User: Fold these one by one.
Assistant:
Number 1:
Amino acid sequence: MSERYIGLMSGTSMDGIDAVLVTLDGETLRVEAALCHPWPEATARELHALCTPGENEIDRMGVADNRVAQEFAAATLALLAKAGLEPKDIRAIGSHGQTVRHRPQLGFTLQIGNAALLAVLTGIDVIADFRTLDMALGGQGAPLVPAFHQALFAKPGALRVVLNLGGIANISVLPGNATGVYGFDTGPANTLLDGWYRRHHSHGGDYDAGGQWAASGQLVPALLEKLLAHPYFAAPAPKSTGREMFTLDWLDGELAGCSYAPVDVQRTLQALSCHSIARQLPAVDEAKKPAELFVCGGGAHNAPMLAELATLLPRWRLASTAELGLAPDWVEGAAFAWLAQRFVTRQPGNLPAVTGASRPAVLGALYPA
């Protein structure tokens, strides 16, 4: 039976709310409409601030919880208008919410975006809180997208990896069979790049568009190796991380006593993202055809970053997920629409081999309209 779902996603980069309307018929997915709804500047600033412990954060989080729901609702209604549809045409919304704290080592994760308010404002049932049951079962609660990548992108007999270049990079390794899928967060993709750029460009946008500032700098090999010594990169999977670990405060500590040009630090942060990803990809059999690496997320538009990855990965063929039928900007939004359908049809949404949970589980909680 064919039904429509909406997926809402705002990631660690906080560069906007991805709203994706899909039609799902069994495992067949088709995107009908999609858009990116910008965060109001004041809301984005407060969300960034909430990612770090601070004064009066419970009251501030409560207010932000409702603001996030209001912006998610605005994104949903704009998407419906774009598609010429009404709330009654949608089976459910899958809302990721906005992560403000991810502490798997302490057994908790926190995504805000008042799902009850979102349901009331849109008139559509909402499925939210996808991560906490996985964590209750001993898992990391992340990443959740590998199950979706396996369903849509796996090819029997072929090694494929889906690389999401968001604020944090994560990979889904699809070895071409149903039992060997795994994935994890590799570390920072854009979060440090964005933060460092904003620090040095107070009136020049929120991120290094197209990676052009980084491309104008010089790599600092000694700094790169120092940053790559972070223990997270060598830690075994399952593992997940967030902007709480790879912060500008951490970077400042690594830069203490150094006098590198800011643009050279930016170039080296790009290399950190690329080298940490390349070092954690599975080995490729030299006797076989090149493996395939399909890229999605905002970093898919960063040509210098992709070129550096290609240089580091000569045995891999790099391409966009658009080649597989899903534009790179809409993969994660579509994934949460798919997870909402999994909840409605009572099918597991996690892969224990990915998250470390003790068993597969139906993820999410229902908030009726």
Number 2:
Amino acid sequence: MSIRPQVDFKKIITEEGIPTTEEAIAIELEKEVVAAGSKVSNDSRMSPFWRLIKAIVIAPTLWLMDNLLAGHVLPNTFAATAKGIYLDLKAWDVDLARKSATKTRGVVAFFKETPENPIVIPKGTVIETDRIEDTIYRMVVVDEVLIEAHQASGLVICEAEKAGSGYNLPAGYYSILPVGVSGISHAMNQADWIATLGSDLEDDEELSLRIRNQFSVVGRYHIDAIYRSMLASVAGVRSDQIYFLHDAPRGPGTANAYILMDVGITPSHLLEQLNVYVMAQGNHGHGDDVLCLGLPETMHTVNASIWVKPNISEARQASLKTDVENMVKAAFRESDSYKNVTRTYPKSTFSFSKLTEEIHAELNDSLLSVRFDEPDIVSELAIPRLNQVVVSYG
């Protein structure tokens, strides 16, 4: 994962010999006063003259240096450090625009109590998740749907309550009907249920990475940068989460582009959309055969033992167990909760000791110790996924 550089512009200004402290500016001013032929009889820094100079010259100069130049102008001069509207202007320079937030849309299966009966699923019916880090995610039925007689279940189009990638949850997460539907026993999102990917408003880091990639595109040769630019223009696809396999996987001139999502698996509808754009609509190089795919997966069962601090209530012990489980699931990209938890990546090592440290930092009020039975996961061009998380008391 690429991370934007952190630059101390005040340090850079100082190293260039520009005075950036009250003392340094006063020395330079005194030199100018002497050079102009003026003489200050009372040169004490507490004299009326220097107090006036400090108020009307030195203090504004320091503000200009610290706040305007080092804190605003210089950082927003470069795509690597610019923020907000200034980064939007940098994007415009290279014919890009910040991607808007979108809502997840997909199908949820509703199951009948009696298959022989026709059932109407009302518009506005809500299907929600358990609470994940104080958030309940909700999908809402878009239009009234009839599940005809003699059908045990039906797929109903639903849309997320709000925009954001956090709603792209894997199968089984949406399973609670807060208000029951007559004749329906239960509902659940199933595998590959997403038709339209939800995404957050593109943040500064994502946009800056696309801007950087765009500089490699100007030649219009169909190198990685061109394909990365095309694929990352779609909401929910990050330019730094596209991985290429160039080893002619389907013969000469072929390559695979693997797409990694922040949350959940890569929807087949998204892959179909990308492949149609790149290949069927002719947006590829001469002789190129590029196939967009979800990353290969390696499946893992994670076993964690936890010890709680003394005098913790039974209710907190139960919620603590759930919290640990949810943090592990977040690490394996099953939700976008617990932002401080390091996610799994291909071509990397997933460290359980790091995860232990992050869990302690989050649950320090109640958690005494946590231990994982598994060794670190070393990944090639594949993404680690969960078979199961088992959290037990030590």
